[in-house]
Every structure is written in C-alpha cells, then in structure tokens.
Amino acid sequence: MKPISIKRKFLVLIIFMSAFYVKAQQSSVNVNTNSEFNSALKLYNNKSYAAAQKTFEKVLQDADKNTSLHSDASYFDAMCAIKLNQTDADKKVLRFVEENPASSKKNKAYFNVGNYYFSNKKAAHALKWYQKVNMDLISKENQKELNFKMGYGLLVANKLALAKDKFLPLINDAKYGNDSRYYYGFIAYKLEDYGIAESTLKEITDNESYKAEISYYLLDISFKAGKFDRCIEVGKELLKEAKRKEASEISKIIGESYFNLKKYDEAIPYLLEYKGKMGKWNNTDYYQVGYAYYKQNDFENAIRFFNRIIDKKNAVSQNAYYHLAECYLNTDKKNEALNAFKAASEMNFNLQIKEDAALNYAKLSYESGNPYKDVADVLQDYLKNYPNSKAYKEINELVVSSYIHDKNYEGALNYLKKKNTKDNYALSLEVSLYRGIQLFNEKKIAEALPYFNKSTASGIKNISDKAKYWEAETLYRLENYQDALFKFNQLKRLIKDNSFPLIDYNVGYAYFKLEEYDKASASFNKATKNTGIQEEVKYDAFVRLGDSYYANREYKSAINAYQNVISNEASQADYAQYQIGMSYGFMNDDNAKIDALKKVINNYQISSLKDDALYQLASTYTKIKDNTKAHQAYDRLFNKYPNSNFLSKALVRQGLLYYNDNQNKKALNKFKLAATKFPNSSDALQAVRNAKNIYVDEDRLDDYVAWTKTLSFVEVSDNELENTSFSIAEKRYFEGKTNATILSLKKYLRSFPKGKNSLKATYYLADVLFKEKLYDDALKKYNEVLEAGISEFREDALAKTSQIYLEKEDYNSAIPVLIELEKEAYASENLLFAKSNLMKSYAKTEENTLALVYAKKVLSTKKLSEDLEFDAKKIIARISFITEDFSTSKEYYENLESIATGELKAETLFYNAYFKSIEKDYEDSNKVIQKLIADYSKYKYWGVKSYVIMGKNYYNLKDAYQATFILENVIKNFPQFEDIVKEAQTELDLIKTNEAKTNNSVTPKN
To answer: Secondary structure of the chain: what % helix, strand, coil (to 5)?
Structure first.
C-alpha cells in the first residue's frame, strides 16, 4: 500500500507544480530546455503553431519524461497538431491522455479539440470529443457552452431526442437562449410535436437570425393543422420577401392549401413554383399537379404530370394511374388508357378503384386488343375475380366475340362447348366454318374438312352455303374429285345469285380431273362469261376450256379458246400458242402448225416451251419432208437447250432422218450419242436397235458387238427372265400396291443389277419409298438414278432428292442438288421449285447475296403463286434489313403489307412501325402497333417486339409512364422471348436513369 500512497503524493505534487511551470524548475531540468519551452509557449500564444510545434517537439526530446515539462510539451504539441489540422492530431491527443491520465489538462484537451472542430463547422467530429469531457471538472459557463455545442452536434447527427435534452436547459440563458429556443422548437417540429414547436418558435419570431425559417415552420405547422386559409394568407405575405429557396417551399404550402380546399385552378401556379428537394419532385408532387389539371378538365396537361409517376406502387400511384386512364380516354387514347387501367387494377390500396379499373381494362381489351394476354382470357379473369359484378352478363357475352375477333376459333369452340346452350350450339356451327377456313389457309386440308361438314348444318343460309362451298373445295384439294363435284353441283342448285362466282370454274376443274371433257368445257365456258371472277382466273378458265376441247379433239373450238388468252397477253399465252400449234397438227394443217410453233419460239422471251416447240417443229418439217429445216430445228434444240428432256428422242429421230437419207455415218453418230448420253433410257435402247440396222446393212456385225459391250445396259441376247421379272414389278407399281411393289423391285434389282430395266426399276423403287416417307432409303435410290447420268428420270430424281434434304432441313446438302435441278429442269414447276428453294436455302444458311439473287429470279417468274411471291418479297425485305439497306427493306415490307395475311402481316406491321419510329413519326408508329395488337394479337412475338418500339415512342413523346409500364410488362410477361426482354430491360434502365434526374421517387438501376 505504501508505494500507492507515495505515488499519489507525487501526483499531487506534480499537479501543484504544473501551475507554476514558467517560474519553478526542478533541479533535474536543464535551464535551456525550460527556456525553449517558454519560447515555444510564446509562439503558440502568438498563433505561430508550426514554429511552436518544432520547439515543443525538441523539448519533448530533451526533457525528462517524468517531469511536468515533458507533459506540458506533449499537451501543447498535440494542440499545435490540432490547430495545424494534421492527420495524426487525434493520435497525439490520445497519446497525451494515455501517458498523462491524471493530467488536469486532459479535460481541457478534449474540450479544446472539440471547439476546434466545431469552429471549423465539423460539428459531428466535434461531438466525438465533447462526449469525452467530464462535465464536473469544467466551469458552469463552459458547461453551458458544452451543452449547446453538443446539442448542435447531436442535431447534425440526427439524434434529435438527445439534442432536444441538451437545448432545453439553455432556452432561457442570456447567451445561448435564443439559439437554443430555435433549435429546440425546430427539433420539436421535426419530431412532429407541433404544439411545442409552435409555442417555442413563436417566442422568437422577431429574431432576425431565424425569422425566415421560423415563419416557414410556423406556416407549415398551420398547414399540418389543417388551417389552409391561414396558410394561404400568411404564405402570400411571406412570399413578398422570401428568398428563392424559401419561396419554393412556401409556394408548395400555398398550392397544397388551395388543393386541399379544392380550389384547383388557384393551386396550380403555386404548385408549379415548387422546385422540389435538391431540384427534384417526387411522385406525390406530380400527382397533385396532375389531379388539379384533371379537375379542370385539362386532360392533356393532367397526362403530362400523371405520366411522370413511375417506379413505385402505393395509394398515390394507384389513384394517379386510374385518373391517368380517364384522361387518356377523354383524349381518345384507348391503348394508353388500357395500360393505365391495368396498372391500377393490379394494386390493392383502394379496392373500389381496383375493381372499376379491372372492368375498364377488360372492356378496353375487347375494343382495342391486348398485347399481354389473349382478350378472352382477360375477360374470363374478370368474371372469375368479380363473379358478383353488375357487368358479369355483359362481359360474358364478349368472351366468344373476342375469340372470333382474335381469330382464335379453336378457343371459341372450346368455350362454347363448355357453355353448352342452344344459342351457343348455333354459334358453334358458324365458328366451325371460320376454323375450317383457317386450317385450309394453313394448308391443313384434311384437318379442315370435319369443320366444314359440321358447319353445313347451320340454320343461317349464308353460313351453310359457305360451308358447303368450302367442303367441296376441300374434297377437290384432297383429290376426291367425284365427291367434290357432287357437292359443288348440289350447292349450285341451292344458290340463286352470283355469291360464289368461282363455282363453275371449280366444277370445270373437277370434270377435267375426271376426264369428262364435255362437261368440263361447258363449265369452263360459263366461268369465262362470269363478270365476278378475276382476270387471271378468267384466262386460266379459257386455257382449261381449250384443254377440254383439245382432249375431246374439238380442235377448232380449242384454238378459239386459246386465242382469247393470246389476244389479251395473259400469263399462259405461250402455252396457249403451243397448244394452237398442236391443234393445227392434229387437223393436218402443217403450215399453220409451223407458224404457231415459230411464234412460241420467237414471240416469248421467257418460256419453258421453246424446246417443246423446236422438237415439234422438227417433227413437222420431217413430216412434210423438209429435211433441211428439220435438221435446223434439231440442231437449234441441241445448241440452245442442252438439258431438254427431248434431247434423247430428238437424237434418235434426227438419226433416223439421216438414215432415211442414206447418211449412215451421221445417223450412226446420232444413235451412238443417244446411247452414250442417255444410258438405260428407252430412247437409248431404240438408238441401239437402229444402230444395229446400220451395222447389219454395212456388214459390220463384229463392230456392233464390240460397241454394245461398252454399253452396260445392253445385252446382245434377250433375257426373257429379266423382262418377266421387271414386268411383274412394274405392274404392281402402277397398281399402287406399295409393299408388293417394294418387294418385287428389290427382287428384280438383286437378280439383275445391270439389267436393261435396272434404272427404271431403281427410279420406281425410289418413288415408292418417297411416297411412304422412307426418306433415307429413297435418297439412296435417287442418288443411284443421278449417278447413272442423264435419263428421263433424272429431273424428278433431282427434285425429290432436294425435297428430302429440305424436309430434313439439311440446306447445305440441298443447295448443290437444287443448282443441278435449275440447270437441267425441263418442267416449269421444277424450275420454279429449284429457284424458290435455292432462295429459301440461301436465306436459311445466311448466304444473303445469293438469297437476294434468287428472290429476284423468283419474282421475275410469270404466274407466280401468292405464297411464293410472299416468300420472295419477304426474303428481300428481311435480308435488306439485315444488310442495312433500309430503303429497299422498307419498300418491300410496304408492298407486302397490302397483300399479306396472318403472321407475315404482323411482321410487316412491325417493320412499318419500326421505320416510322426511326423517322421520328412516333404517333403514327404507335397507331400501326395498336393495329398489330388489335388484329394480330395471336402472333405474340411480333406484338411483343413492337411493344418495345412503342415504349421508345412514348418516351420520345414525353410519356414516361407509358414507356416504363410497357417495358416493365414486356419483361414481366414474356420471358420466353429472351432477345426482346433483354432489349426492353436496356431501354427501361436508360429511361429510369434519366427520370431519376428530376424525380426523387425513381430509383435508377446501378
């Protein structure tokens, strides 16, 4: 215990001696060190802190650590560090306290550090040091100072309750009273203790330092107490002298006071004067101005403010969106209203608003379409959520109508089946017709037939008649010509007007397919006189009228029918001209035949019949014994059309022509060429037989035998067994006995792999396998046909091989086959098949340049089907867009839009909207999108993709609400379209980042 007692005495002595550090010195302290300390102290008192600190640091080095001199030097060194704002000042003070825990300067050090930070407006930093001061060791005056400054520090730190306790004892103090009263009242105001705040602040309303602030707080307190008239009166007076910042807040209170008094017209200018917090409004601010305009029926301005309310779900936004929807309706913006009602209907803050918004959302969905959900589902959702609604019956009736409007006939039929009533059954018969037509247009012919069958039972004559017509047309497309004819004729007897102008045309085709040419010609003749049919159909009827007469050997009548096509330069004029030539031939008018065939060759720049005409021309010259011109025609055929199907026959016939003119050498060359170039064909076999005659005539049988040994398809001796085996297989092939045919053909090919009929058998087998959809096996056989070289089967083999590859979506394998088909095709349909599928295959493999080349080739074809025209134009439009040839893309999409249907129509509308948006025609772009959504909502991809454009459009039209609502719903409702969702998210982030600059309620994505 003694050491402790001695230590305490020593500490007392130290404390006592420290008061006299200038005069008193310990014997152990150097006189010079004491002098340096006094010099440093003088510099400190003269505020030369840097110089003083250097000297204090020297004293610290020289003085004994256990002396008061060392302790005092440490204290003043720390104070200099504080004054000089050095980074280690805090550490020096703490070190001083740690080394001198009993120093009387410890409290003073804490206080001085706090004061220093406080005077440098670092109240929060000062608070940390003030809290270390022992209040009992400082004077009463310093206690007041400390309480005041700590109160302020706590206020800055937002510790309002603690701060309030510090200011309360000082509110009557002479020095700190007014400031403490102000802060005490301010804290009460912030803590919403308005009674205390008002009574406290009123006592110092005349204080010039706080007059402006106190006036505002008292005004706001009056506002919160509902004294709106007083707020307006006082606020207007305050505005006269208010600074800009105060004027903004005072204007807000005046505006809201008028607003609460429902004096909306007077509220608007004051609400608009409000500058917001940090220059930003929040959603409530926008709502008040929007609602004030709404109550004045100024809907455009109301929209301008309501649509800035985004990114929050609360009672304010639900009210705002409901009123925003009403504003949109009053400005005839139904699509925009739809979105706002949807948003309001999805919030639960006000259930009455929720239900009413849901009803309006359902009705508008029916009227204008719905991009997020099938309209029928929206209507049924309403019925499910509000089964007791007064509008239940009305909405229920709209469900079927919505299915029909959206062309979702299958959905309508399912709904009607569930709600099975007499009226619904009658309606289902009508909807069945629409569903059948829909399937028919989708090329699902067999699936369509049952719907037409059902619809014929409709009690509505117009529906029943249409169903019967489509039933007959479907049977025709299914090649059930007899039943189709029966149905067409049955309908003809029922109708009395021209409501089905194509019926005679269709009946004619049915008779034609059944080879009843008399009846076919009668029907086609009627069709040509019907003014209700299109020109293209009319002239096709003339062609088939001519064909019917031709088939019946009524050649003069045929010629007259064909002449109508030629005179009007219709699409099949070259065919009609060729048929006229053939008709003259059968009438033995060879000169007229020759003239007609020459016209085919010379008058039609593009025609697939020119080689036909040359072949027939050569045959006709041969007939009239004008051999020179016959040879000229054959030679022209060989030179101009090296891939013609007539080459093998022409070579044989020209060889015979030379043979009959005793030009055996030339004849033999032609026969040999036919046998070499067209092996395994019937013409090649004929050529071999004719060549044999020449070799026999010239007594060169050995040469003949040697030559035939070079031909794989010829055996000098006949093989009866082979002929019999092939005949059996061929008979079964033509009888359509699939399994038996396959077995017989395979057996033949195993037995006679190089027989004279092996190529034909291979082709037959490939054909049967193809029809049975055994594509891999068929492909092998077609390739064998192709490897055999040029033959009568080659063209079809090329067509079917490419078709198999296309079916497998193996476009890279299909392309080289299609190229060969294009080069060699004789049949116009195969040539078009090659070009159109090269176009599609190149598009699929992203060979854009070649796809464009073939698309233009396809478009140059006469009598192009509507589907192929669409495909070609579609590919040009799409690829032009990909290659950034936007003017061409726009041109083709515009062209397609006028004729397109279904999904292609939806696509064209999307690009129409896209190009309008790019051209800054935002409103028209939105109108196109609304049409897409209203009429083609089943094609979700294009509807959703267009909605991203609509979002951008609205933002460019200064409608942030519509923009964000649309983009958020795209992201929320359509995750299956990842590319679109990604684009929507990017646009939404950009908009929110931009809106956050002026709206405190918006939180941008980091």
So the answer is: 75, 0, 25
Please give the Cα distance from 757 to 741 (Å, whole number).
15
Place of tokens 């009460």: 188
Taking the C-alpha atoms of residue 526 and residue 321, their distance in angstroms, rounded to an integer, is 63
Residue 999, SS3?
A: strand
Distance CA 920, CA 304 (A): 20
CB 183 within 8 A of CB 192: no
Q: Which residue has the tokens 């096709």?
A: 540
User: CA quadruple 799, 801, 806, 812: dihedral positive or negative?
Assistant: negative
Flag whether pLDDT at 714 surpasses 80: no
Pinpoint the alpha helices (H) of 406-502: 409-418, 422-441, 445-455, 461-477, 481-494
Q: Measured between alpha carbons, how far is 165 from 148 in angstroms, rounded to an integer? A: 10
DSSP-derived secondary structure for 607-664: -TTHHHHHHHHHHHHHHTT-HHHHHHHHHHHHHH-TT-TTHHHHHHHHHHHHHHTT-H
Residue 280 pLDDT exceeds 60? yes
CB count in 10 Å sphere of residue 900: 19
Place of tokens 């980091």: 1006
- Residues 473 and 484: beta-carbon distance below 8 Å: yes
**Cβ–Cβ < 8 Å for 309, 316:** yes
d(CA 64, CA 571): 121
**Measured distance CA(928)–CA(946) in Å, rounded:** 9
pLDDT at position 792, please?
Answer: 84
Specify the DSSP class assigned to residue 371: S
For residue 294, give the DSSP letter: H
Query: 209-213, 316-320, 595-599, 855-859: lowest mean pLDDT where?
Result: 209-213
Output the DSSP codes for 372-399: SS-HHHHHHHHHHH-TT-TTHHHHHHHH
| Bridge partners, 280 (sequence order) | 277
pLDDT classification of 591: cutoffs 50, 70, 90: very high
pLDDT for position 13: 35
**Is the pLDDT reported for residue 29 higher than 50?**
no
**Torsion 275-281-287-290 (CA) sign:** positive
Rounded to a whole number of angstroms, the distance between the first and last alpha carbons of the chain is 66
Cα–Cα distance measured from residue 272 to residue 260, given in angstroms and rounded to the nearest whole number: 16
- pLDDT score, position 802: 93
Q: Would you state the structure tokens that stand for residue 80, as one six-digit string?
A: 């200099």
How much is the pLDDT for 900?
85
Give the residue from 547, 538, 554 showing the smallest Cα distance to 520: 547
Instruction: State the Rg of the chain over Cα.
Output: 50
Instruction: Judge whether 992 and 1002 are in contact, CB under 8 Å.
Output: yes
Nearest to 799 by CA among 814, 788, 784: 814
Whole-prediction pTM: 0.56
Question: Could you read off the pLDDT of 790-832 as tens digits, one per residue?
Answer: 888 888 999 999 999 999 999 999 999 999 998 888 788 888 8
Provide the pLDDT for residue 4: 38
What is the C-alpha separation between 233 and 239, in angstroms, rounded? Answer: 10
| The pLDDT value given to residue 338 | 93
- For residue 721, name the pLDDT band (cuts at 50, 70, 90): low
Q: Is the pLDDT of residue 71 over 60?
A: yes
Shortest CA distance to 483 belongs to which of 455, 514, 459, 462? 514
3-state secondary structure 49-78: HHHHHHHHHHHHHHCCCCCHHHHHHHHHHH
Could you count the other beta carbons within 10 Å of the beta carbon of residue 798?
A: 25
Within 10 A of 628 (CB to CB), how many other CB atoms are there? 8
How many other CB atoms are found less than 10 A from the CB of residue 222?
A: 22
pLDDT above 70: residue 637: yes
Give strand pairing partners of 277: 280
